[in-house]
Amino acid sequence: MGIIKKVPVYAEKFPGGGIITTSLNYIFSQSQASSLWYLLFGTACCAIELMATGASRYDFDRFGMIFRASPRQSDLIIAAGTITKKMAPRLKLLHDQMAEPRYVIAMGGCTVGGGPFYYDSYAVEKGIDHIVPVDVYIPGCPPRPESLFEGCLKLQEKVKLQKIQDWS
Amino acid sequence: MELIGIFKYLYEQLVATGIPQVWVDLISLVASAVIIFGVLALIALFLVWWERKLSADFQQRMGPMLTGWHGLIQTVADAIKLIQKEDITPTKADRPVFFWAPIICFVAAFAVYVTVPFGEGLIVSDLNIGILYIVAITTFTVISLLMAGWGSNNKYALLGGMRSAAQVVSYEVPMIVAILSVIVFVGSLSMVDIVESQALIYQWYIFRMPFGPIAFVIFIIAATAETNRTPFDLPEAEQELVAGFNIEYSGMKFAMFFLAEFINMFTVSAIGATLFLGGWQGPFLPSWVWFLVKTFGLVFVFMWFRWTYPRLRVDQLMEFSWKFLLPLAFANLILAGWMKYSGWFNW
Fold first, then answer.
1. Which of A19, B35, B93, B151 has the most crowded Cβ, counting Cβ within 10 A?
2. Of B77, B86, B247, Cβ closest to residue A100
C-alpha cells in the first residue's frame, strides 16, 4: 500500500505524469467496483430476498459479486434484516474483522431506521448507522431484488469515485 | 507450429554468442521458469473465470457479464482488488507459520511443472523419476494447509486444516497405487517414456482392457479428493467450517491459496492426461495443442463433478477411501502386473 500511495507524489512532478495516476486510479477503482464480494450476513426476511438475488433468476454474479463466508475476504456487508440490540455487537465485530476497504449496505426498513419496529420495541436497533458507517441505504420491506441491484450499482458508482491519494 | 523449434533456435543463438555453457544453461532454466510461471498464472486466471461461467451454465444463470466481454477479465479485476485489500495478521496468530503457509502452497503448486511434458520435447527436465517427483511435490500442499490451519489460531481453520490433511493423505494412497499400475506397464517413471509408450489411440492406458479404465476411474476420484473439490470439499464446507483453512487470510495471501487450488486442479488433470490419455500424442494438430485439449477436457470433468454432486460426510469419505478404493486399487495393481507378466495384452 505504502509504495502505491507514493506513486502520485513522485509521478506528478514529471510532465505528463498525471497520466500514470489517472490510469492507476481508473484500473484500481474499476476493479474494486466490479468485484465486490459480500459477506453471508442475513438476519431476517430481507435475507430471503438477498438469496433470491444471488440465485438464478436475478444472479448477483453478473456484477462479479459472489458471497464469501469469511469476513476477512469480503468487501461488503449487506445487512439484510432486523438488527436487534443483541446482534449489534456482532455486526460491529464482523465489520471490524473485514479488511479495508470495506463497505456497508443497509438493506430494508429495519436496518435503515427501525422499520416496523420503530415504535414500542425494546429489542431492535433503530438503524444500523448507530453501529457501523453505512454507504448505501435501500428502503423497502423487504426491497425487491431490483432495488438491491440499484443499491449495488449506486455503491459501485461511489467506489469508482475513489482516488489513490485518499487512501488511508 | 511446434513450439520446440522456437526454443531450440533461441538456445542455439544463445550458444552462438560465445558465453560459457554454465551461463547458457542457467539463462535457459530461468527463462523456462518465467515462461511456465506466466503461462500457468494465465491458465489459473482463466480457470477461475471458466469455473464461474460453467457454474452459471449448470444453474441456468449468466455468470460474470459486465467486466469485459462476457466477464472475461473478471478474475483480473478480482486479483487487482485483492492486491489492494488490507493484509491482516490476527494478533494471536503464529506469525511465521501464518506467513509461510500460502507461500509454500503457491510454490509447491508451481514446482510440479518441472517434469510435466507440455508437448513433444516441451519439458523443463525429463527426470527419470518424473512421476515420483510430481507425487512427492504435491504432498507439500498438505503441509501448507496444516500450517494455515494451525497458524491462524482459529478453531474453524484448525478443523479445516486437520480435515484436509486426513483426506489428502488417505486419498493419496489409492491414487499412487492407481498410478503404479500404469508404471508397471510402462516400466519407467519418466513422463516422456510414459507418453511415448502410448503412441496410438488403442495404446492409451485408459483403453488397455481391463485394468486401464479401473485405474483411470480410481485416479479421477482420488484426484478430486486430492484437490479438495466437491464432492470431497469437506475442508472448505461453508455450512460447518465457514471457509475452512483459509478463513483468516485476506488480500493477496488468500489469492495465493485460491490460485494454487486451481493450479493444482490443472496439475492433476495434466497428470491424468499424461498417464491415461496419451499426453501430447494425437494426429494433425501440434503436440502442445493436444496436451491442452486433453487437460482442459479433464478440468471440465472436475468442474462438472463440482456443480453436480452434493458433499459427502466425513465418515463416508474415509470409509470410501480405505474400505473400497484402496482394496480395488491393489487388486487392479495385481491384475496389471499379471497382464504385464503373462504378456497377453502387450500390444
1. B151
2. B86
A105 in a structural domain? yes
Closest residue to A63, CB basis, from B66, B81, B88:
B66
| Contact criterion met (CB < 8 Å) for B77 and A99 | no
CB contact under 8 A, A30 and B77: yes
Domains in chain A: how many in total?
2
Interface residue of B84, B155, B242, B258 to substitute, partner A, most A CBs within 10 Å = B84
Q: What gap in Å lies between CA B150 and CA B154, rounded to an integer?
A: 8
**What are the strands, taking DSSP E only, across chain B?**
none
Spatial separation of the C-alpha atoms in residues B30 and B120, rounded to whole Å: 20
Pick the residue from chain A with its C-alpha nearest to B244.
A70
Q: Which residue of A has its CA nearest to B248?
A: A72
Verify that A25 and A64 share a domain, yes or no: no
Q: Is residue A168 assigned to a domain?
A: no
> Which among B77, B238, B249 has the least Cβ separation from residue A31?
B77
Q: Please state the domain extents for chain B.
A: 90-341
Do A25 and A75 belong together in one domain? no
> Considering only CB atoms, which residues of chain B are within 8 Å of chain A?
52, 56, 59-67, 71, 74, 76-81, 84-88, 238, 242-243, 246-251, 254
Task: Note whether A135 and A147 are same-domain residues.
Answer: yes
Confirm whether pTM is higher than 0.95. Answer: no
**Pair (A17, A76) in one structural domain:** no
Are residue A29 and residue A40 in the same domain, yes or no? no
From CA B55, how far away is CA B141, in angstroms rounded?
26
Using DSSP's 3-state secondary structure scheme, residue A38 falls into strand
> Both A22 and A44 in a single domain?
no
Annotate A3-38 with b (16+ C-beta within 10 A) or e (fewer): eeeeebeeeeeeeeeeeebeebbeebbbbbbbbbbb
Same domain, yes or no: A63 and A108: yes
Mutation target to probe the A interface, by most A beta carbons within 10 A, among B49, B81, B248 is B81
Please report residues of B whose CB lies closer than 8 A to that of A27. Answer: 80
Give the three cell numbers for residue A55.
440465485
- Is A134 a domain residue? yes
- Say whether both A102 and A19 belong to one domain: no
Q: Is the ipTM of this complex over 0.95?
A: no
Distance of alpha carbon B120 from alpha carbon B79, whole angstroms? 33
CATH number at residue A72: 3.40.50.12280
**Full domain range(s) for residue A24:** 1-33
pLDDT tens digits, chain B, 347 residues: what are they? 567 777 778 878 888 887 888 888 888 888 888 988 898 889 998 999 999 899 899 988 888 888 888 888 888 888 888 888 888 888 888 889 989 999 998 888 888 888 888 888 788 888 888 889 988 888 888 888 888 888 888 888 888 888 888 888 888 899 999 999 888 888 888 888 888 888 887 778 888 778 888 889 999 999 998 888 878 877 776 677 777 788 888 888 888 888 888 999 999 999 999 888 888 888 888 888 888 999 999 999 999 988 888 888 888 888 888 999 999 999 999 988 888 888 766 65
| Residue A47: inside a domain | yes
